Structures are given as structure tokens and as C-alpha cells.
Amino acid sequence: MARLDDNVHAALLLTSPLAGEGPPPLKAREFWALVDEVGDLTPLLAEVPADRPDAERLRALLGRATAFAFAVEDAERQGITLLSALDARYPARLRSGMGAQAPPVLHTVGPLGLLAGPLVAVVAADDLGQSPSTGGSGEAAEASHLGEGGEIAGGEEVSRVRGASERSTLVAARAAAAAAAADGHTVLTGGFATPLDAAATSAALEAGGAVVGLLSHPLSSHLHTPEVRRAVHGGRLCLVTPFRPNAPWTPTAEAGRAAVAAALADRTVTVPTRTPTLLDDIPPDGVPP
User: Fold this and answer.
1) Whole-prediction pTM value?
2) Mind listing the domains of the chain with CATH numbers?
3) What's the rounded Cα separation, in Å, for the pair 85 and 219?
4) Which of 184, 226, 192 is nearest to 209 (CA)?
5) How far is CA 35 from the centre of its chain?
6) Residues 111, 221, 202, CA angle at the centre, nearest 5°?
7) What does the DSSP 8-state code read for residue 146?
8) Can the peptide bond before residue 118 be classed as cis, meaning omega within 30 degrees of 0?
9) Which of 5, 23, 151, 202 is most buried, by CB atoms within 10 Å?
């Protein structure tokens, strides 16, 4: 493990979920309240004042340095970097945009410089982009919904109308991501979690751009995917999660990811997720124009 600044080291000991047994790490609000109270965390490494109501918990968390060092070495062997909120490389917009809800630690793979932006998020207008797939490459995720030649696949009873709408959405997502990349923006997606995320991620990379994939599903599931490895080693893909690298997807995690994405993005492009019809031209009173 590389030598950490003492303040950053203390912050990671207090907040990282990777160090195994012991009291629960500080949550975001608890961490930022402590930072606001004491400022520099370094003195706590030497001594935690006995009169603090949370003294026992803080001592236990700060005392897990050995277990934490082994956990970090294991993460680094997988290519994962822990980024504390007190690290100079941490995106300042998260703290300014989320306040006391800003995640105190991020788990990342790839060039951290991409987090500085400017970032353009590509998101779905409704739930097409919200349900996670099993991960894997963008091509695999897209194929889970569309067969060869764009035919509906997957064994589900899905109408052709919905299939056409989803195909249209994926085309729109690819176009939005490619345009943002051509303009020199880094594209912010959900990585390869959904067909829409996979389409936007792949299109931006194919256009020669860069992508930040903000994940609510396991980061570790992507570490050996060839497309991911090529883009990471090429300096054009950074995968990020505020959760444990092997944490499973949950609705709560997705809500947290969405809040981080909203704070991280400079601009958001919303992709419509259904095909317009003639009924869209009828005003609310039902009288055609």
C-alpha cells in the first residue's frame, strides 16, 4: 500500500467498509460532522479524547490499521483504488453538491483524472435504464434484450412495439454519448449495468471519448471483462462506486448512485424511452389542434 497522508489515512480507517470485523464505519453524515468538528483527523491517530461519546467506536475503527492495510493491498491487486473524500483527487463537486451526504470514500478503477470532468450524463427518461443486468460487456448487455439483426430475444413475451421503442432508445443513447464525446466531454453512465448504459458507454469509447461509469452494482464483476480492461489501460474509462466493490445491487444502492450522478454531472442528457405516436399531438382537453 502506498504511503498515505495521515489525514487521509485516518479518514479511510474511519469510513472504509473493507477492513473486516469491528464496529460499523462512519456513515456520511457522521463523517462530515466529525470533520466539521475537529478539522484535521491526524491527532485522532495518536489519541481519541476520552470524553467523546463516540470515543470507543473511533478507537476501534482507527485501531484496525493492520487489517485495513491487508484489505487495501488485496484491492490494489485487483486494480481498485480507494479514494477518500479528504484526498485532493476527490471530486469537489460531490461535497459542494451533496453536503453531508457526499460519500466519504469511493472505490475506483482507472484514471482518476476523468472525475474532474466536464461530465455529461446520459440517462433514461423512465425505468429502461434503471434495472441492472448481469453485467459483462456492452455487447453482451445489449444482446440480452436484442437478438441478431435487432430482433427481440431473451425468451420473454415482449411486444414488437416495446421492442421497437427499446431499439430506438438505444440508438438515441448511442447518439447522445457519441456527440458528447465528440465535443470533448467525458460521458457519465452506469457503466454496463443496463442496455442503455452499455450502449452509451460503448458509443463514447468507439467515438474516441472517455467514460466515467458510476456503478450501483458490483465493481468487481467488471474487472476481468476485456472491453473494460482495454479502456481502463487506454486511459479512457474510470469505474467508480461509493459501495463495497462486491456489494450487490439494491434499489437503495441505485437511489444513492443516482444522487451521486446528479452531483457529479455538469449536464444531463435525458433519452426518451418510448416511441412518439400521433396521440402525443392531442392536447390535454382531447381536442385535436
Assistant:
1) 0.81
2) 6-82 (no CATH), 112-271 (3.40.50.450)
3) 19
4) 184
5) 24
6) 60
7) B
8) yes
9) 202
